[in-house]
Amino acid sequence: MWCTTPEISWHNRDPVLSIDIQTGVHETLENEVFWRLATGGADSHVLIWHLTTNESGAATVKCVADLERHHRAINVVRFSPSKDILASGDDESIIILWKQKEDCEFFVNPNETKDKEQWISYKVLKGHLEDVYDISWSPDSNMLVSGSVDNTAILWDVQQGRSVSILSDHKGFVQGVSWDPCNQYISTMSTDRICRLIDINTKKTVQKVYKAKIPTPADHPIKNKTVRLFYDDTFKSYFRRLTFSIDGLLLIVPSGIIEPSETTERISNTTLVFSRYNLKEPVMLLPSLDECTIAVRCCPIYFELQKDGPTPVIALPYRMIFAIATQRSVMIYDTQQISPIAVISNIHYTRLTDVGWSSDGRILIASSTDGYCSIIQFQKGELGDEYKKGNNTPINSKAIHNDSKQPMSGSSAKDVSEKSAPTIDIDNSAMDIEIVKSEEKEILTENPECVLNQDNKLLDNTIDQKNDLKNKEPEDTEDIKLVYNEESITESTKANIKHTPKKEKIPLIIPNRKPRRVQLITLSSPREFKKE
Q1: Does residue 199 carry a pLDDT above 60?
Q2: What is the DSSP letter of 129?
Q3: Which pLDDT score, from 0 to 100, does residue 388 have?
Q4: Which candidate, 162, 69, 47, places its Cα nearest to that of 120?
């Protein structure tokens, strides 16, 4: 593993607030292989970089484009999964979607040293009232969600360039948003100390968590006690960038805290890991001691389980690796153990703001408010062997999207779903409930495949309901028609209508007497008139 911090002025020595790496590698006209980066800074510029590395660990970055349409600090930059759109959000409540100019991917001119790549503003999304802090794309790149200081998260339709829904039930700044890889949920993290899980279709909060019982030793003072899980608005960062794992099974949330039961004890900072099926209690606590956690990003590669490693904490047939940015360190974890597999510390003078992975999982970049970015490189196989897809395939997002209650395919994945829960454990206290009356047609027109996948009792109950509906005696009913046409009213009905007589007009009485003149005396009138 190599860690280098290029001594270049990324954003004129202003804080670098966000960084992202585009999916896939690219080649220049000179057949030079590079990664494309995007950074957003407090200088209101979005910069596009080319990153090249060699086997000795040396990293070189070159600025190839400067996108200048923003007028305030840029808090977040994110490439779409489709690789063709870049989204950036700023302190002016604006989100700009950028596209690289077609047929001009590498505009090379020896006499022009400014921009080697041409990017254009594709869409401008306006809907927030305050600073935009975080952005997350949908897996199909057709939508995105943004979080803002105006206490809202907004779902955007990228093609139409307009908002689809405004999620306004937050009571504080929305500092982190994440889109489920299975395309079912959106998760948000706010300064109101609540992490929410929102259904994409209904736009309603399905689960939320702000306090829970955490796993502790038997002699711990907070054993079996319900404690708050997240920092309040005294959190020392603008961002709480949470993320789903790449298979969608886990939700990893920074800004966690374990408050002591007594004032003499120290506050413990932590990152919390939840199951998508149950947000009531965390499945893992990843302590970070004196440093609060700010951002989490998952490596996009599945890895084989370590044969000589500990028993997996989470029963999965593969390992997932994720990086956590604290105030001054980058901690790398996997799903096989609760202790970090690597810690990179003392690489920046001030706090970190964001982290990003390359699509091959061998490059990790961290940005900081000191105006620099650190590039961490891993050798091939250093993090482990890449997971070979066989019978035990990672979770299928399409299957979950079609039926969230259907167990995952594969024998080992099926065991995982049974251990965690076959269905989502909904927190009724947090859910917006709609009461819908089911009728006979809905019972009889259910999908037969869904009925067969469930227990036979459900099918028997459906048949019994059908028979009960048939055996019921029909009630005597009368059809009533409302007639609004006056011509269709019968004569008998007209006879019963009472007509009110017309009132006679009374003529106005005009008096013959002339009106009397009265002299008006005011406070400003002369005294002579007042004496008279």
Answers
A1: yes
A2: S
A3: 86
A4: 69
In angstroms, what CA-CA distances link 48 with 44, 66, 360?
13, 7, 20
Determine how β-strand 33-41 pairs with β-strand 16-21: antiparallel
DSSP annotation of 386 reads B
Cβ atoms of 148 and 130 within 8 Å: the answer is: yes
389: helix, strand or coil:
coil
Distance CA 464, CA 359 (A): 54
Structure tokens at 88: 């950036």
Positive or negative, the CA dihedral 88, 138, 193, 218 is negative
Q: What is the percentage of the chain residues whose pLDDT exceeds 90? A: 56
Query: Nearest 5°: CA angle at 51, between 45 and 56?
Result: 145
Q: Which helix (H) or strand (E) holds 46?
A: strand 46-53
DSSP3 helix / strand / coil % (the chain, rounded to 5): 10, 35, 55
CA angle 434, 438, 443 (to 5 degrees): 140
pTM: 0.73
Q: What mean pLDDT do residues 446-469 have? A: 43
Q: What is the C-alpha separation between 376 and 330, in angstroms, rounded?
A: 10
Look at the alpha carbons of 117, 364, 318, 186 in this order and tell me if their dihedral is positive or negative: negative
Strand order in the sheet with 132-137: 132-137, 143-148, 153-157, 162-167
Longest Cα–Cα distance of the chain, Å, equals 119
Tell me the C-alpha distance between 127 and 87, whole Å: 15
* pLDDT score at 110: 47
- Sheet strand arrangement including 363-368: 2-4, 373-377, 363-368, 352-357
- Residue 9: CB atoms within 10 A of its CB come to 10
User: Which residues are within 8 A (CB) of 428 and not within 5 positions of it... i.e. 6 or more apart?
Assistant: none
In the DSSP assignment, the letter for residue 309 is S
- pLDDT over 70 (residue 154): yes
SS3 397: helix
C-alpha to C-alpha distance for 462 and 511, rounded to whole angstroms = 87
Q: Considering just the CA atoms, what is the radius of gyration of the chain in Å?
A: 33
Instruction: Give how far Cα 276 sits from Cα of 172, 207, 279, 420, Å.
Output: 23, 10, 7, 9
Helix (H, G, I), strand (E, B) or coil at 247: coil
Contact assessment for residue 177 and residue 153, using Cβ atoms and an 8 Å cutoff: yes
The partner residues of 136 in beta bridges, in order of sequence, read 145
Residue 483 pLDDT greater than 60, yes or no: no
Q: Which is nearest to 211 in space by CA: 197, 193, 236?
A: 193
H or E, element range at 448: helix 448-453
Asked if residue 202 lies in contact with residue 241, where contact means CB atoms within 8 angstroms, the answer is: no
